Amino acid sequence: MAGSVNITAATVDPALLDLPWNIPLEEWSNEHIALLPKGISRHLVRFANLSGYVIAIKETTAEMAQREYDMLRTLQRLDVPCVDPVAVIKNRTDDDGTPLNAALVTRHLKFSLPYRALFSQTLRPDTATRLVDALAVLLVRLHIVGFFWGDVSLSNTLFRRDAGAFAAYLVDAETGQLYEGGLSNGQRENDLEIARVNIAGELMDLEAGGRADEELDPIRVSDGIVAAYRSLWKELTGSESFSSSERWRISERVERLNELGFDIEELAIKTSEEGTKVRIQPKVVDAGHHQRRLLRLTGLDTGENQARRLLNDLDSYAATLGKEGLDEEAMAHEWLMRVFEPVIRSIPADLKGKLEPAEVFHQLLEHRWFMSQKEGRDVPLAEALTSYINDILRHRRDEATVIAPPTETISIPVLGGAADDDEDDDDDWRSKV
Q1: Measured between alpha carbons, how far is 168 from 191 in angstroms, rounded to an integer?
Q2: Contact by Cβ (8 Å): 139, 191
Q3: pTM, to two decimals
Q4: DSSP readout, 171-187?
Q5: Taking the CB of residue 278, how many other CB atoms lie within 10 A of it?
Q6: Cα separation of 307 and 286, whole Å?
């Protein structure tokens, strides 16, 4: 039983009191422990079942637990992808009154996995590159809000599949610091160097253990985060000048940022005294452009690349049926009712834990396209769905409880424009639903 523990939480789940806080975490029985894949951590971390969902429990000092809990709550308010802090458990003692470590409780991010669990036998170079690209996007988002991580690594990150790419979420904020005035170039470069060194070490560790493809080059992959980060940072925050006769470049810049999945809340535009030069620079940049549009239109809360893919399918559906001029919200509702939801309802109950719905739909579109290419005809969605369920989905392991799921063979990098998923052929709705 919990004894006289002190629980700090925004909303306390009474079930927390039923967990054996009077027992060291390493001695908890299987009655409470949930078997999920864990990343590498300097602290003891275990998963437990709580009120129908899974929590991660990390034993640490009371001061560090409280600090990390507060930091995670702040990052959430800033809309940064991170785990959900649930509570801090302090004043733990065993039955003899011996003090036990405090615990930080976070909610397990469903369908997310540590990097070591994203491959079954060996880590392929393209998968490693996609993971690093996702981490680069996360690091840019953290730096934009003024967060210095201090321990950037694959191990301190969780990954979710996002329409052929990955989305990265911060797990460990223990060493992080938030600066209201933003980060200096030196602080950003420091974080970037930490990331490069840590990633190289993690990949070399896999290589030494025979768990990396022989073609994987840890140094080249780890250097990739530097290139990916700098390219994205420049696009999001860099200023550019051009002639006043080229004002179309303002809209072009905004569209490029939207394609990367970012919105601009403020754009500084300055003209020279001669009136011949225009200088623009984004001031406030928010990620999730496609996520927010899809959520507004359909109520679906997905990853950014998944949202982009579903929106492409929505647009193709409207174009194929000649309904482009209809009200956008009405068109989205019709697509949701006639296309997306019937697909998800068709997934057998015993397979619903394999992947989240948006990822299932994305993979179905991929499968349909490949079937059409192979057979030289437009395969109806219903036919593709049956094939996908029987030939693909049924043979996957559940990602909610998987220990080592297979790496996908279809891969699209996050950066460099290849993650746009704007291939109209993939989303061709010439066959009736």
Answers
A1: 16
A2: yes
A3: 0.73
A4: ---TT-EE-TT---HHH
A5: 19
A6: 16
